[in-house]
Amino acid sequence: MTSKVTAEEANAFLTKAFNSSQNRSEVILMEDGHAIMRLKAGPEHLRPGGYISGPTQMTLADSVTYMAIFTRLGITPMTVTSNLNINFLRPCIGEAVIAEAKLMKLGKTLAVAEVEIRAEGSDKVASHVIVTYSIPAS
Amino acid sequence: MTSKVTAEEANAFLTKAFNSSQNRSEVILMEDGHAIMRLKAGPEHLRPGGYISGPTQMTLADSVTYMAIFTRLGITPMTVTSNLNINFLRPCIGEAVIAEAKLMKLGKTLAVAEVEIRAEGSDKVASHVIVTYSIPAS
Amino acid sequence: MTSKVTAEEANAFLTKAFNSSQNRSEVILMEDGHAIMRLKAGPEHLRPGGYISGPTQMTLADSVTYMAIFTRLGITPMTVTSNLNINFLRPCIGEAVIAEAKLMKLGKTLAVAEVEIRAEGSDKVASHVIVTYSIPAS
Amino acid sequence: MTSKVTAEEANAFLTKAFNSSQNRSEVILMEDGHAIMRLKAGPEHLRPGGYISGPTQMTLADSVTYMAIFTRLGITPMTVTSNLNINFLRPCIGEAVIAEAKLMKLGKTLAVAEVEIRAEGSDKVASHVIVTYSIPAS
Q1: Is D115 part of any domain?
Q2: Which range marks the domain in which residue A63 is found?
Q3: Mean pLDDT value across residues C2-15
Q4: Does A132 touch chain C (CB under 8 A)?
Q5: In the prediction, which pLDDT does D16 show?
Q6: Count of domains in chain B?
Q7: What string of DSSP letters covers D11-38?
Q8: Is residue D2 situated within a structural domain?
Q9: DSSP letter at A120?
Q10: pLDDT band for position C27 (50/70/90)?
């Protein structure tokens, strides 16, 4: 099955919905239950030594899960994060960050996704995240 | 026991260490194992309807835990977040956000804090966070 | 407000619903949004050195949250655990274990409780748990 | 690389170290950073309707992570669970349960594993678990 929302539509939604700090991240893949975003790291995302900050990684995990849900439900802005659990495994060092979300479960009230965050070009996972969203009753 | 770092010293450290998006948050209390930060919400922290965004709350929880660790260890920039688990309980709506961290454990390798995030003036907890930091070997 | 279920009723329910390994634990307090259980430690709960095992603590946290939900909703066996996050802070050593749950949120679809596990007689928290239950649509 | 401990050695260790309620679970695979356990469900593991209980799944996730660590470090009984985060995705119904752990990270002080629990014969994940163990200083 294909995604209900294309990467272009997802990016158009994000540009309209969020503010300037988001304009360095873009959706690069939208498939059924699967989304990938890429963030070009700017000064506000970095710590001394070129490390991508923890908050940057958490924010990206949250966003890419939002997108993964859209692949199944279409654009549903009223879904909200219920829980996020992140384990920082290794330093994330690079000019860009890749966040990949795969839906583990999409029920009537909850969606649960597994997200991997890594520096672009690296095959090692920097952080591993489980993100749970509440699906509002329609 | 008093904190090893005063609120003033903590704020001076934060101003030097981080970049512009942090300049709306300040440390307002530093006690032994206990820290409180206050964030004046700006456009980059808000979602339509005046909701304080999830990422804003996660970032603040991460920062105030960092501060709570400083109250015991002094300024130790090499401590890094290992795990963060956040439950969003209620919408956080207000002009400012209060984040309060209490250390539950400070061992040789790990520090674990409990953090409550709420809108200033509200007695209801918007999000509850457990943040774990790794303490590097000295 | 008082609990919708008394400690006696809770214990009667547990005795009927679960099997023999549970008969060492009992509900000792049921108040609105607040429940306490006590487990008399048997060989199956202990590790060498008298440590109360991790699984014992997790199981007790799960049960006492179930009870805390009953204090508000009455006996609702169809509620099921959705997520459990436990941090083991200190060894739990003792002849009995106390588990205390306080509901942080009770919504239409989710209940979230904070649980502290400690050895009876100790004022130090052995493990801290956040337990989330799904409330089925009625 | 092969595991430092074979399935036979792992089972011999478990038989000696733990007590009777464990004798229905066995290690069926030990590879480098990868372990699988199988539990034959008994009355104490089941809820009405043939559901494998949450505590059974949490306990198994904890054990199989312990085994996954042994594949890299050899038999190291002093490693202890630091954190466990479980998401129950679907009911687990079956006569036996399979738990599979893969180490995501093995550092000097922490090991983090991803665990999937499913009913034997099912391709759907019943629960997804992230288990963190502390590695004691040697």
Answers
A1: yes
A2: 7-134
A3: 95
A4: yes
A5: 85
A6: 1
A7: HHHHHHHS-GGGTTEEEEEEETTEEEEE
A8: no
A9: T
A10: very high
Task: List the single residue in C85, C108, C110 with the smallest CB-CB distance to A85.
Answer: C85
CB D56 within 8 A of CB D96: no
B86 touches chain D (CB under 8 A): no
Q: How many CB pairs under 8 A join C and D?
A: 58
Contacts of C12 (CB under 8 A, 6+ apart): none
Cα-Cα-Cα-Cα torsion A126, A68, A107, D58, nearest 10 degrees, comes to: -10
Q: What's the pLDDT band for D23 if we cut at 50, 70, 90?
A: low
The verdict on residue A98 lying in a domain is yes
CA of C26 vs chain A CAs: smallest distance (Å): 31
pLDDT per residue over B78-87, tens digit each?
999 999 999 9
Lowest mean pLDDT among A100-104, B100-104, C10-14: C10-14
Provide the percentage of residues in chain C whose pLDDT is more than 70: 96
Question: Is D87 in contact with A128 (Cβ distance < 8 A)?
Answer: no
Which pLDDT score, from 0 to 100, does residue A24 have?
76
List the beta bridge partners of residue B131.
Answer: B84, B113
Residues of chain C found within 8 Å of residue D83, distances taken between Cβ atoms: 85-88
ipTM: 0.95
Q: Chains near D, with 3+ CB pairs < 8 A? A: A, B, C
Residue B73 lies in a domain: yes
- Residues A67-90 have a mean pLDDT of 96
- Chain D residue with CA closest to C91: the answer is D80
Q: List Cβ neighbours of B111 (8 Å cut-off, separation of 6 or more).
A: B65, B68, B69, B79, B103, B105, B132, B133, B135
Answer whether C89 touches B (CB < 8 Å). Answer: yes
Of B19, B54, B55, Cβ closest to residue A44: B19
- Minimum-distance CB partner of D85 among C43, C54, C85: C85
Contact list in D for residue B109 (CB cut-off 8 A) is 109-110, 134
Q: What's the CATH code of the domain at D86?
A: 3.10.129.10
